[in-house]
Amino acid sequence: MKKEVFDFVGAGFGLILAALPMTIIAGAVKLKMGSPVIFRQQRLGLNGKPFTILKFRTMEQFDRAANGIAACDTQRVTPLGKFLRHYRLDELPQFVNVLKGDMSLVGPRPRSFMERDKPYRDVPELRTVRPGLTSPAIVEEFKAGKPLSPEATIAKDLEYCRTLPSVRNDLRIMFETLRHVHRGTSATVPHTPSHDDLRL
Q1: What is the mean pLDDT of residues 30-39?
Q2: How many CB atoms lie within 10 A of CB 188?
C-alpha cells in the first residue's frame, strides 16, 4: 500500500472514530472559551509550500493591539486546554489536514515560520516528506520525558526522510505514540509552543 493511500484511509478512519469526541470537545471549547473553537496557524509543508494547520484552541484570546505584549503562553492555557494538551486531543483536527494532503499520519514535525523554527527550515531535506501528526522525534521525546534538542530532532526527522516509505514503519511509530499518550507519558513532554495568540 502506498503511503498516500495509507494516510488517506487512516485519516478517514481516524475522523470517524474521533467524530463524537471532537464534537464534545468543540462544544466544551465553545462553552468555556467562546469563539473561535479552532486555532489556525501557517506551517511549512511538502516542498516548502505553506499550509494552515488546525488545532482545538487551548488558550485564552489575547488582544495584542489593546494589551501590548502577550502573557507567557503557559499562563494563558485554560484548564480545559491543559487537559486537551495532556492527551494531545487538541491535535485531532489535524486528521483534516491529512485528508487534504497537507500532512501525513507520520512525518517530520510541522514547523512554523517563527524564528525559533529557523534551524529546521534551514534543512531542505526535511521538506521532501509531508509533515506528520506524529514522528520518530516525538516518540523519542515521550521515551525521554523531555524535549529533544534541535540537533537531535533534526537527526531523527532526517533519518525518517531518508528511509524508503514504509507502512509497517509508520504503523510502529503510530502505535508507540498511542501507547505513550494512553499511558500519560506524553504529558511529561511540554507541548510544542504554538504562540496561538488567535490572530483570526
Answers
A1: 94
A2: 12
Supply the DSSP string of 117-138, one letter for each residue: GHHHHT-GGGGSS--EEE-HHH
> Is the Cα dihedral 80, 84, 40, 141 positive or negative?
positive
Banded pLDDT at 145 (limits 50, 70, 90): confident
**Region 59-87: what's the mean pLDDT?**
70
Count the Cβ atoms, other than its own, within 10 Å of residue 169: 15
In 3D, which of 131, 137, 136, 139 has the Cα closest to residue 104?
Answer: 131
* Contact residues for 72 (Cβ-Cβ < 8 A; gap 6+): none
Residue 186 CA, distance from chain mean position: 13
Answer whether 88's CB lies under 8 Å from 58's CB: no
pTM, to two decimals: 0.87
